[in-house]
Automatic annotation (TrEMBL):
Name of the featured protein: C4-dicarboxylate transport sensor protein DctB
Keywords: ATP-binding, Cell inner membrane, Cell membrane, Kinase, Membrane, Nucleotide-binding, Phosphoprotein, Transferase, Transmembrane, Transmembrane helix, Two-component regulatory system
Enzyme class, spelled out: transferase
Organism of derivation: Mesorhizobium tianshanense
Histidine kinase domain: residues covered: 429-643
InterPro entries attached to this UniProt entry: HAMP_dom, HATPase_C_sf, HATPase_dom, His_kinase_dom, HisK_dim/P_dom, HisK_dim/P_sf, Sig_transdc_His_kin-like_C, TorS_sensor_sf
EC number(s) recorded for this UniProt protein: 2.7.13.3
GO cellular component, one term: plasma membrane
């Protein structure tokens, strides 16, 4: 019999292939591209932010940090110069000045080397260098002034030291003269009739000599005080006292000019007088030293001003460098903040998009439809043909739903075709079953007509009653065939297992007779065995198992089919066996697969056991090969017993 192809399947096969549409794959690819695009965007934003940050950090590291370090070293060099400058102008000795000057020069040289080595690192270097040069030039002038001052100081100290020796020599030379004058005066006074003029002359010499000594001592003291004077007023006052003392000393020296013994004293006193001269002596040196000190103070003030300007410029350079570094740091922070905000926004957008796609599309749409279609496919595989298949959707799941609908139609029609094929195989036997009653009806009707003509009405009524019985029997057989051929109901209920087996045998009785097959039947007699099933489909299972048993014993020497039905616990069992050659071990795992058959071509579709398996599974039962071998095979069906 030709297999029936459903109209839906033909329509499905006629749809053009390769037509592009925005299906699940395109949607998921689009979502993937969008999410990958967001990830690439996040990477790009991060890369740009890091590039900007790296540029700012590189600028800080290569420009601002060296400038800041340079400014810090400048600041330290300026502070060092300021610290030494305060003590440079106040040095009182050449050694102290030389030591301070050496330290000052070293620090100034360090500043100069720092500026010379700065190059382009400092934008204020063009202003710092002239200041540093001015400090150097000023320091040279300070060196000149300090040298002259210390030279004058040294000369004054040397002159004072020499003057002190002159003073000591003067005292030493004056003492004998004083003793001589005193002796002469005493000698003259002891003589009778002394010369008063001689006595007065000796007294004048003594007074003059003592005055020279005292004025020389006074001048020496004033000169010693003069050396340590620090103000011009003190200098002028001391010079006035020293001038008076020098004038008196000069008069006294001249008064001793006619005393030959006082020549040494006069020479020593003249040396004191010479050093007391305001224009040529130590006062002149002191005035020159104070002038140089004043000039040195002026140069030191200028140097302090230059150093302060240098410090101010250094401080300005430090502040400017810090400001540039702060600006670069602020730009880096801005770059980081902007990149962070963009990355957070992209992450939120990506997470939101992933949630929307994952929950609203994948979970609520795709997975829900897939689960529904999987449930439908399970129901179809279990033989529940009444399950509704969701329609709609211009995507792959919509195609799958339409394919499942077509598959269900094809499956149902193949099952129906299998049943019709079974009916076709039973057509000869059915015809035999109908022909015999028809022949009897013709015979009884002919005899009835003859009996009526002969007036034997009682006999004619008996023939009519026989005709009625035969017609009823034929109607029951035709009704049974029609019931077996119709589509089954999905509702399960109590079904008498023995009656189902007898109905199935009634469809296959002719094969037992024609093929000479022995039937070994054992059904419950005392009580009816009812199982939970649907009668039409359960009868189809029985027909399939009995028909397969008949096919298995065809051509065998021993042709026997055994059927057993019994109840055990809460289960009802049906056992169908044959005396065939058995099932090959390699085929045991495939006998319930659709379209698997070991029969010759044209002898079957290979759907009987597969359909029976799904029907029994739909009844919450089991069907299996109980045993098989060279002496035959037995199939065991287990069903739930219906509650009585």
């Amino acid at each position: 019999m030709e297999a029936v192809i459903p109209a839906g399947a033909k329509q499905w096969a006629a749809e053009p292939e390769g037509t592009w549409r925005f299906g699940i794959g395109a949607r998921l690819v689009t979502a993937f591209v969008v999410i990958v695009g967001l990830a690439v965007g996040a990477c790009l934003v991060g890369w740009l932010s890091y590039v900007r940050l790296a540029g700012e950090l590189s600028q800080i590291a290569q420009a601002h940090m060296p400038q800041l370090a340079f400014a810090t070293r400048l600041s330290k060099a300026g502070a060092d110069i300021n610290a030494v400058m305060a003590s440079l102008a106040g040095a009182q000795t050449r050694g102290a000045y030389t030591e301070i000057r050496r330290s000052y020069s070293e620090r100034l040289e360090a500043l100069q080397m720092l500026l010379d080595g700065a190059g382009s690192n400092s934008v204020g270097n063009d202003l710092l260098l002239p200041l540093a040069d001015a400090v150097h030039r000023n320091l040279e002038q300070i060196d000149l002034a300090a040298g002259k001052r210390f030279t004058l100081v040294e000369e004054m100290r040397s002159a004072v030291d020499e003057l002190r020796w002159v003073q000591a020599d003067l005292l030493e030379e004056a003492d004998p003269l004083v003793e001589d004058v005193r002796f002469n005066m005493e000698t003259e006074a002891d003589q009778t009739g002394f010369n008063r003029g001689v006595l007065l002359e000796e007294q004048r010499k003594s007074e003059a000599l003592l005055t020279v000594v005292s004025q020389a001592n006074l001048a020496t003291g004033l000169i010693g005080r003069l050396v340590n004077i620090g103000t011009l007023e003190d200098l002028q006052e001391t010079n006035a006292f020293l001038g008076d003392s020098a004038d008196d000393l000069a008069i006294r020296i001249r008064s001793l000019s006619d005393w030959p013994d006082s020549i040494t004293v006069r020479q020593l006193a003249e040396r004191v007088l010479k050093q007391s001269d305001v224009h040529t002596g130590i006062p002149n040196l002191k005035r020159s030293e104070m002038a140089e000190a004043s000039r040195l103070e002026t140069l030191a003030a200028e140097n302090r001003r230059l150093v302060q300007d240098l410090g101010a410029r250094i401080e300005a350079e430090v502040i400017a460098t810090e400001a540039r570094a702060a600006e670069a740091s602020a730009r880096a922070e801005t770059a980081i903040a902007t990149g962070r905000k963009l990355l957070v926004a992209i992450a939120i957008l990506a997470v939101t998009l992933a949630i929307v796609i994952g929950y609203f599309y994948v979970h609520r749409n795709l997975l829900a439809r897939i689960r529904l279609l999987a449930n439908v496919a399970g129901n179809i595989s279990a033989g529940r043909s009444g399950t509704a298949i969701p329609s709609g959707g211009r995507d792959e799941l919509g195609d799958l739903a339409r394919a499942l609908n077509i598959f269900r139609q094809t499956r149902d029609e193949l099952i129906q075709s299998a049943k019709l094929a079974a009916l076709g195989q039973m057509a000869a036997g059915i015809g035999h079953e109908l022909n015999q009653p028809l022949a009897a009806i013709r015979s009884h009707s002919h005899n009835g007509m003859l009996l009526i003509e002969r007036g034997q009405e009682d006999q004619a009524f008996r023939n009519l009653d026989k005709i009625k019985s035969l017609a009823t029997r034929m109607g029951e057989q035709i009704s049974h065939l029609r019931r077996f051929a119709r589509r089954p109901d999905s509702h399960l209920g109590p079904v008498e297992l023995g009656a189902i087996v007898e109905d199935a045998l009634s469809l296959l009785d002719h094969r037992f007779d024609e093929e000479g097959v022995e039937l070994d039947l054992a059904l419950p007699k005392e009580s009816k065995l009812q199982v939970l099933a649907e009668p039409v489909r359960l009868e189809q299972v029985a027909v399939n198992l009995i028909a397969n048993a008949l096919d298995a014993v065809a051509g065998r020497e021993v042709r026997r089919v055994s059927i057993r039905a019994w109840a055990e616990g809460t289960k009802g069992f049906l056992l169908v066996g044959d005396s065939g050659p058995g099932i090959a071990p390699g085929d045991l795992d495939s006998i319930f697969d659709p379209f698997f058959t070991t029969k010759s071509a044209g002898s079957g579709l290979g759907l009987g056991l597969s359909i029976s398996y799904n029907i029994i599974k739909d009844f919450n039962g089991t069907i299996s090969v109980k045993d098989t071998g060279p002496t035959g095979t037995r199939f065991l069906v287990s069903l739930d017993e219906a509650h009585r």
